[in-house]
Every structure is written in C-alpha cells, then in structure tokens.
Amino acid sequence: MRRTSVARSLQRAVSGSLARCGGLATSCDPARMFVMRNLLSRQPWYVAGLAFECAGCGRCCAGPEEGHVWLTKDQTSEIAQYLNISEDQMLSQYVRKIGRRFSLVERQDNKDCIFLTIGANGRKQCRIYPVRPIQCRTWPFWPNNLRSPEAWALAGLRCDGINRGPLYSYHEIEAKRKATGS
Fold first, then answer.
1. What is the pTM of this model?
2. What is the pLDDT of residue 60?
3. Which own/partner pairs from 34-41 qualify as long-range (CB within 8 Å, at least 24 positions apart)?
C-alpha cells in the first residue's frame, strides 16, 4: 500500500470516527482520537509529552547484552578530570575504540558499564554520574525508544522510570533525542 493510500485510509477512519462521535463529543475515547489526529498531522506520536523519572535501578547501564556508550574527546577529558586521572590512563583503562568512535568499556563478567557500582545502600549507582556522557544523560529519549509507542513500551519493560514521574514536553524530548547525535 502506498503512503498516499495509507494517508487517505487514515483520513477516512478519523473522519468516520469524528462523525460517529459528533465531532469532539466526550463519549469517544480521547486517547484514540488524539493518536488518530497525530497520525494525520505527521507529528510524532509523543507530541503530548512523555513521563519519565529515573528510578535509580541501573538497568539502563547493565547487561546482559553488549552495548556502547559513545564518548567525545571532551567527555573523555571531563571524566578523567573527575576521576583525577590522566587522559591517557582514562583511554587505556576505561575506553575502547570501535571503528572511528570511542566507547566506555564494559565489565567482562556481566556486560555492565564499567562505572556502574554497588553503593553503600546496596543499590546500583553510577560512579561518574555528575559527568556521565550525553548518551547516558538523554536516556530514555533515544531515537530507537521513540520510534513508536510499542518501542517505548518495550523500553519500559527494562526501565521502571518510563511512564512515571514528571511529564517531559515534546520540545524537551526532541532536544534530548537530537543531543544523542542520532
């Protein structure tokens, strides 16, 4: 089905739904109507915002899959300074080169981020939290998680903070999404 055919089908579905609901009558499911209008306007599905509040669980930084936490030279320098080590030591001990890019290394035993530690309270925490890379600062507003409501829900299975806490506006979400460089 071509994109124009899909758009026409959606337009008919929304028009039919609006007609059956008497325009914007309250007897219709507002969430469904909101989604249908956004599909037609080509706005992202999260235009009304998304709730997120870090639960401090550390699952976003943990294995079992291998992952990449991409770093810029400035971020590498900032982390080295925070840890009170040289940039050379930072690069040799905590960073790996992947193609032309650099990523934090992971623990070999469980694929957790090298800076994810167990705090005095028994909870996982980031050893470099005040200077964590931009990729970490923008979680969960990564392009893959924002691809669809289903992708967001899937990320929510791993992250207890998704759909909880304060509502981030569309503009805040877009700023974080764009900051990932993706």
1. 0.69
2. 85
3. 36/10, 39/10, 39/14, 40/7, 40/10, 40/11, 40/14
